[in-house]
Design brief:
binds cytidine-5'-triphosphate; phosphopantothenoylcysteine decarboxylase activity; 5-stranded parallel β-sheet; flavoprotein; 8-stranded mixed β-sheet; EC 6.3.2.5; metal-binding; Rossmann fold; 2 domains; decarboxylase; alpha/beta; elongated
Length: 400
């Protein structure tokens, strides 16, 4: 079988050096990679490096090898184009269809999925011009992954770092695995909650649960690879931020509610994979609760937390918003799931059985996705990513 053909576009930012590692990962995993740098990119990493690492000649202009019509051929034959780093200038050119060098020509002739991994200073990323260009590219079906937050060139820190090459590689792998299909969540905004809330009793203790956050993170990663802009509200997971996703860290159910409600108004779908504590201690002790000799401990009085899933289902932030809940059950799994689906008022409920090796902390999961329209989709035991893909298939169908 022919190796999948990947075009690695490199535009002129300091993060160009990180694209060398992305290139290595792509070639070592069996991809035929053609590197198309811009002239500015060559100020950071020279043509010899790209050529040696890819095993192909490298050119920035449409005027080399004209007999082979490279400005058309390279894009036409690609299975994937990934631009990393994508500068503000490159995003602007791509959004407006400019074609003044080999990379911009390639972007216009490619009919395969296109991934942009932007990297720039925070001000440039946040500028309305860049944001509108990104929105245009996403609407047209490109996968634009969110930049990471951290150290930028010089002493600045903020949003704008190129995500880790290993993470960009994972996005490419997932996009390629979906084949030529247009990323079906492109232009959509999805909110995913993950992990388990912790309800503090005192400065050192909390009431918590065993959710690892892995299923929610799998949902966030797969949605990003399907083109969505993803807000991940993460409760106490300790997991590294997935590439291309906006992560909001929270601790308690009340904080999780606030973060979800803040992100929900322009969301096309909200997926509540987090295990939210139903109760929290009525009082928080500002100092550590101490044992008292000869005295029984004080009972802990609990109060109800808001039911976030029921609230967002009842009060949809926009028409057609798809709301998905999760339910981990130990007994009468499907019967309880159906009752819960009606009680919560969501469109889909992913029901799984809690048991040994299943659900909490594991890499695998098995579930039935119940639809408010009466549908039932069984997902066999397998990686949490496979369940995540099925959830997004069902969400995408409902988004139409
Ligand atoms: N959920 C929520 N807010 C809560 C509790 C749960 O949004 N206060 C969401 C979870 O994120 C999950 C779904 O509701 O998507 C189901 O959670 P679960 O704990 O199974 O539901 P409960 O209503 O708490 O039902 P049970 O009586 O079985 O605990």
């Amino acid at each position: 079988m022919d190796k999948p053909k990947v075009v690695l576009g490199v535009s002129g930012g300091i993060a160009a050096y990180k694209a060398c590692e992305l290139l290595r990962r792509l070639t070592e995993s069996g991809h035929d990679v053609r590197v198309v740098p811009t002239a500015s990119a060559l100020h950071f990493v020279g043509a010899a490096t790209w050529s040696a690492l890819s095993g192909h000649p490298v050119s920035t202009e449409v005027w080399d090898d004209v007999d082979q019509v490279p400005h058309v051929r390279i894009g036409q034959h690609a299975d994937l184009v990934v631009v990393a780093p994508a500068t503000a200038d490159m995003l602007a050119k791509a959004a407006h269809g400019l074609a003044d060098d080999l990379l911009t020509n390639t972007l216009l002739t490619a009919r395969c999925p296109v991934v942009f991994a932007p990297a720039m200073h925070t001000e440039m990323w946040e500028h309305p011009a860049t944001q509108e260009n990104v929105a245009t590219l996403r609407r047209r079906g490109a996968v634009v992954i969110e930049p990471a937050v951290g150290r930028l060139t010089g002493v600045d820190t903020g949003k704008g770092r190129l995500p880790d090459p290993a993470e960009i590689f994972e996005v490419c792998r997932r996009v390629l695995a979906r084949g030529a299909a247009r990323p079906d969540l492109a232009g959509r905004h999805v909110v995913v909650s993950a992990g388990g809330t912790r309800e503090p009793l005192d400065p050192v203790r909390f009431l918590g649960n065993r959710s690892s956050g892995k299923q929610g993170y799998a949902l966030a990663r797969t949605a990003a690879a399907r083109g969505a802009r993803v807000t991940l509200v993460a409760a106490n997971t300790g997991l590294p931020d997935p590439a291309g996703v906006d992560v909001v860290q929270v601790g308690t159910a009340v904080q999780l509610r606030e973060a979800v409600l803040k992100a929900a108004p322009d969301a096309d779908a909200v997926v509540m994979a987090a295990a939210v504590a139903d109760f929290r201690p009525a009082a928080y002790a500002a100092g550590k609760i101490k044992k008292k000799d000869g005295q029984e401990p004080e009972p802990i009085v609990l109060v109800r937390n808001p039911d976030i899933l029921a609230e967002i289902s009842a009060d949809r932030a926009r028409p057609g918003q798809v709301v998905v809940g999760f339910a981990a059950e130990t007994d009468d799994v499907l019967a309880n799931g159906r009752t819960k689906l009606r009680r919560k008022g969501c469109d889909l409920l992913v029901v799984n059985e809690v048991g040994e090796r299943k659900t909490f902390g594991s890499e695998e999961n098995e579930a039935v996705v119940l639809g408010a329209d009466g549908t039932e989709t069984a997902v066999p035991y397998g990686p949490k990513e496979a369940l995540a893909e099925t959830v997004w298939d069902l969400v995408a169908q409902r988004l139409g």
